[in-house]
Design goal:
mainly alpha; globular; 0% strand; 76% helix
Length: 205
């Protein structure tokens, strides 16, 4: 069991990260100051440095946490799984991240558009390597006749684009649906629709 002080620090860090992510989406990196972050979480500015030494460290942590979540979701795609269920679970995991962390997803999308300068070559290589591994899983399923043959990398582009849309273009989704906020029901409908289309396209339904 973690000591109380450790849990309190994690709680404070999580608050800082959430508040910073919202500020970054609204004002961008250059328009977000440590003073703004301190005000958003209602702590003195000097206390903020106890948790993060700089704005860059907070930004980096947001990006790293998102990468870790996406890598964890990819890691669940294994050759011994049943393709239909594995793909369904992967789509749900990606949609759930969009539901819970829309600001972080927007920040990462903007980072990618600007060239992913914050990610090291090793980190980018890790993503490429892991994606290659999961492409091999799909190719194995195709060789075994367990799903239709298609380009596995473009399969992932399709899933990433459709699931992250709910976060990266959240306002447009709300405008089209005519709602002020997205509920769990909206995300569940997204999961069902994307899953149906993808599984059909893979010859799994």
């Amino acid at each position: 069991m973690k000591p109380k002080s450790s849990k309190l620090r994690e709680f404070k860090e999580a608050r800082i990260l959430r508040a910073t992510a919202k500020l970054l989406v609204t004002h961008g990196f250059q328009g977000t100051r440590m003073e703004d972050i301190a005000q958003a979480v209602d702590i003195p500015r000097p206390n903020l440095y106890y948790y993060f030494p700089s704005r860059n460290h907070i930004y980096r942590r947001i990006i790293n946490d998102l990468r870790a979540a996406w890598i964890d979701a990819l890691g669940q795609i294994t050759a011994d799984g049943e393709p239909r269920e594995v793909i369904r679970n992967y789509i749900r995991a990606k949609i759930e991240y969009s539901r819970k962390h829309p600001a972080a997803s927007k920040i990462f999308a903007d980072e990618v558009i600007r060239g992913s300068g914050i990610l090291t070559e090793e980190e980018n290589e890790e993503i490429r390597r892991l994606t290659d591994e999961k492409c091999e899983v799909l190719e194995r399923w195709m060789d075994e006749g367990r799903m239709d043959r298609l380009d596995p990398r473009h399969f992932f582009f399709l899933v990433w684009g459709s699931t992250q849309y709910y976060a990266d273009f959240e306002q447009q989704v709300k405008n089209v649906l005519g709602v002020k906020r997205l509920t769990q029901t909206h995300f569940d409908m997204g999961v069902d629709t994307i899953t149906h289309v993808v599984l059909k396209g893979c010859g799994l339904e």
